[in-house]
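PROTEIN DESIGN WORKSHEET
SECTION A - STRUCTURE
LENGTH: 63
TOKENS:
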């Protein structure tokens, strides 16, 4: 825990990098169009179904 705190103090963040915001926005736009299935959106944009659903949930909370 001390090592993590020390790394954060130096501006380092752990964990896996997130997906590009532009790609997520594109996926959400495709989803809202209702012209594509979730599988098609996932294959086209390269994001997983879970990532799409997580961001859909975040979008609904912010409305």
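SECTION B - SEQUENCE
RESIDUE ASSIGNMENT:
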């Amino acid at each position: 825990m001390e090592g993590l705190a020390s790394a954060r103090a130096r501006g380092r963040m752990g964990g896996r990098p997130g997906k590009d915001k532009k790609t997520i926005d594109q996926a959400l736009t495709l989803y809202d169009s209702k012209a594509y299935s979730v599988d098609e959106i996932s294959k086209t944009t390269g994001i997983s179904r879970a990532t799409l659903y997580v961001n859909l949930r975040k979008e609904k909370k912010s409305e």
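SECTION C - NOTES
The mean pLDDT is 93.
Residues 49-62 form the longest helix (14 residues).
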